[in-house]
Amino acid sequence: MSDVEAAEVLFWALADEMISAGAAHEGTMMGMRCLRVDGEFLAMVFQKTGQLIIKLPEARVSEVIYGGSGSEFSPAGRKFREWVAVDEVDRNLWLALLEEGREFVALD
Prior knowledge:
This protein is α+β, with helices and mostly antiparallel strands and 108 residues long.
């Protein structure tokens, strides 16, 4: 299994838990499967890299980047200030970030 495939498997295992609990639902974003909360985008796995792409408050995005766990999400050169690309495929990190992101997106 490739790293990208492993990231997809982990993401959808975590996403299925959230979907089963009624905390999120599946959708699409940029032509890729994603997780949504109340119609708002929450997260996806970037199919080219296997990174978790997740919406968080701008200050938290900076913390994740400067803490060494992620990088700016800037497809086609446009920086998304409330989105971070998480490099490390780690169940506990992804689970924590998905919960943070869900709470943030639910406020929008």
